[in-house]
Design a protein that fits this description.
Layout: E1 2-6, E2 14-15, E3 18-19, H1 21-37, E4 42-46, H2 57-73, E5 77-80, H3 87-90, H4 94-98, E6 102-105, E7 115-119, E8 122-129, H5 134-141, H6 148-164, E9 171-177, E10 179-180, E11 199-200, E12 210-214, E13 220-223, E14 226-228, E15 245-251, E16 257-263, E17 270-275, H7 277-282, E18 293-298, H8 307-314, E19 318-323, H9 336-340, H10 345-356, H11 364-387
Parallel strand pairs: 1-4, 4-5, 5-6, 8-9, 9-12, 10-11, 12-14, 17-18, 18-19
Antiparallel strand pairs: 1-15, 2-3, 7-8, 13-14, 15-16
Helix pairs in contact: 1-2, 5-6, 10-11
Length: about 400
């Protein structure tokens, strides 16, 4: 069976105030053309269809259009909600839409009810695990712990139980939206940590033939059976070195997945340039980036006059300006963004406490209070998106 794995469309999102709707439309055209050209048996969308719980009308129209086009091709689509989506909004009409071959899986209670596809080798059970916010689904799933690993384990226990009741030759696929240990993060993913810990081990997905993951925006392989497709477009300059891709997965008769990486169209390349203003304006080696979206980090010891306007004369698509004087005492010359990369909300908050108290770190009780406050804020944000 041939599957096309994608995720993290973030329809409606902009890039530093530049609309990406045209680029998102081009990607969806590419997705439909790829599904048709490679004669895929199903499209898998592993969450974050939209960028926010209440997406703009133009984003909803893009979504509606691509579903109609996939349905017209007769290509079944299995789709889950991610942490950016409103699961309840995305799941409206799922029963009716399912009759057209578009299968929305947004309710955690139905994570063990697969979409069953068939080919000449038999059945493939596709289970959709929407983003699972531990505080909201722990009791419903009967999880024994409070974190992401506990709720995903509980959901996968249900999946394995359902799979065990099916014929022994049934192959299995799981779609999930989570931060799996070993994955490489970027600046554009919303933190989903709980109690300072958001990652789950890849072993959570043991027992299934292929895990199609969403949430992290870089295309990556954790194991031969556990992969992120990544986002189809770059949503931060930290993704400048990403090759945006889809996974074309052939699930063999014995359940072994064989994957090929297919590149996505690039609306405009990204460039992260660093140097003094005069260096960026004069050096010939920067010429290839003159048509790129540019993040410029200026190392001048003092801020130059009108730097954005002057950079714009050479780089008309410069979008972000960072000041990082070469002698400012920064850690190993790293910019503020670089120093934050890979650190979760808990670590950043504790660093702030240490900074304002001139090096005195938070004690155990203060760390506990910070954890509770961050979890409460995250839960309040999730609940408000669910209600809206």
């Amino acid at each position: 069976m041939r599957l096309l794995h994608t995720s993290d469309w973030h329809l409606g999102r902009s890039f530093h105030r530049v609309s990406l709707l045209d680029a998102q439309r081009d990607f969806l055209d590419h997705l439909v053309a790829t599904a048709q050209r490679h004669e895929v048996d199903a499209v898998l969308v592993a969450g974050d269809v939209y960028d926010r719980a209440v997406p703009p009308l133009a984003a909803v129209e893009l979504f509606d259009d691509v579903l109609h086009r996939l349905a017209a091709l007769g290509v079944p689509t299995v789709m889950i909600s991610g942490n950016h989506d409103s699961a309840r909004r995305l799941g409206v009409g799922a029963g009716l839409i399912g009759r057209a071959g578009i299968h929305l899986r947004t309710d955690p209670a139905h994570c063990d009810s697969p979409v069953v596809l068939s080919d000449r080798h038999g059945d493939v059970a596709c289970y959709g695990l929407p983003y699972l916010e531990p505080a909201l689904v722990r009791e419903e799933l009967g999880a024994t712990g409070r974190g992401h690993t506990a709720v995903l384990e509980a959901a996968m226990t249900r999946v394995r139980a359902d799979l065990a009741r099916r014929p022994g030759h049934t192959r299995s696929v799981v779609l999930a939206h989570a931060f799996v240990t070993g994955g490489e993060v970027s600046d554009s993913e919303r933190d989903i940590s709980v109690g300072g810990v958001g990652s789950v081990p890849a072993s959570v997905f043991d027992g299934v033939d292929y895990a199609a993951l969403g949430h992290l925006h870089g295309c990556q392989v954790l194991t031969d059976r556990v992969r992120y497709s990544g986002s189809p477009l770059a949503y931060s300059f930290s993704e400048a070195r990403h090759t945006k891709s889809l996974w074309l997965v052939d699930l063999e008769a014995d359940g072994v997945p064989r994957a090929e990486r297919l590149s996505c169209p690039v609306p405009r390349p990204l460039a992260r340039l660093r140097g003094t203003l005069e260096e960026l304006l004069e050096k010939p080696e920067y010429a290839p980036h003159e048509d790129s979206w540019v993040e410029a980090t200026l190392t001048d010891p003092s801020r130059p006059r009108e730097p954005m306007a002057r950079l714009g004369a050479r780089f008309p698509h410069v979008l972000q300006l960072v000041f990082d004087p070469a002698d400012d005492g920064a850690q190993d010359g790293a910019s503020y963004t670089d120093r934050l990369r890979g650190r979760n909300d808990q670590q950043i908050t504790e660093d702030f406490v240490r900074h304002v108290r001139q090096g005195r770190a938070a004690d155990a009780e203060e760390r506990r209070l910070l954890t509770e406050a961050l979890d409460a804020a995250r839960l309040r944000d999730t609940e408000s998106e669910t209600v809206r």
